[in-house]
Amino acid sequence: MAPEEAFPGIFRFEVDSRAVLATRNMTPGRKVYGEQLVEVDGIEYRTWNPYRSKLAAAVLKGLVKSPLSIGDRVLYLGVASGTTCSHISDVVGPKGYIWGVDFAPRSLRDLVSNVARYRQNISPILGDARDPASYSAEVQRVDVLYADVAQPAQAEIVVKNAEMYLRKGGRLAIAIKSRSVNVTRSPREVYSDQIGVLEKGGFTIGEMLELEPYEKDHAMVTAIYRA
Predict the structure, then answer these.
(1) In a shared domain, residues 73 and 141
(2) Domain shared by 62 and 82, yes or no
(3) What CATH number does the domain containing 88 carry?
(4) Which SS3 state, helix, strand or coil, does residue 63 take?
(5) Which residues of 37-58 are buried (b: 16+ CB within 10 A; e: fewer)?
(6) How many domains does the chain have?
(7) Around Cβ 169, how many Cβ atoms within 10 Å?
(8) What residue numbers bound the domain in which 16 lies?
(9) Could you give the CA distance from residue 66 to residue 64 in angstroms, rounded to a whole number?
(10) Quick one: 73 and 39 in the same domain?
(11) Dihedral angle of Cα 25, 27, 33, 39, to the nearest 10 degrees
(12) What is this structure's pTM?
C-alpha cells in the first residue's frame, strides 16, 4: 500500500495489515531504536512507535495541524537519546536543522553516537533548559520549539526559551507531564495551569491532546508565539 502523507514529512500506511506512522529515512539502512524499515517504490521509511514518542502519540490521537514543516529550524528541549528527534530530523529534512538540549551526559552520548553522527541536521547540546542563555552561542533563531522536559516549571521553561530563540509566529509543541509538575492535583488541572502560563508568556494555544493509552498523565499542547 502506498503511504498517505498525513502531514508534511509524516506518513500513514499499512505494514502487515496494521496501520502505522512513518517518516522517510534520511539514513537509509540505519535504525535508531529498533524500528521497522519499510521500502515503498524505492523509498525507505522508518515506522514511528507512539509508545516511544509523544509526538507520534499526538498524531494518532487526532492532531489536526502538525507543528513541523519541511525545512524548519527546531530547538528541542529534553532531547534525551534522540528517538523523537530522529523522526523530526527526517521530517525537517536536510534543509532543516535541530538543536537538541539535554542536561544528562549519558543521554547526549547516546544521541551523538546513535543519531547525530549519521545526520548532518542535528547539533546535540549539553545544557540546562532552565538557563537558555547558557547555550546562546550555539542556537540560532528557530521556527519551532519542541519541549519534553520533566521539570515542575515546564511552561515557564518554554516561555524563557521562546523569548530568546523562537521567532514571532513560530510554533510550539510541548509534552506536559502532569506528575512532574504536581502529583497532588488532577492531570487536567495541571494542563490548564500550564496552558495559562503559556498564554501569559505570549502563546496562542492551538490544540491540547491527552496521550493515553500511549502515555499516562501526559498531554501534547501546540501553540503559536505571538510575542
Answers:
(1) yes
(2) yes
(3) 3.40.50.150
(4) coil
(5) ebeeeeebbbbbbbebbbbbbb
(6) 2
(7) 9
(8) 4-48
(9) 7
(10) no
(11) 40
(12) 0.95
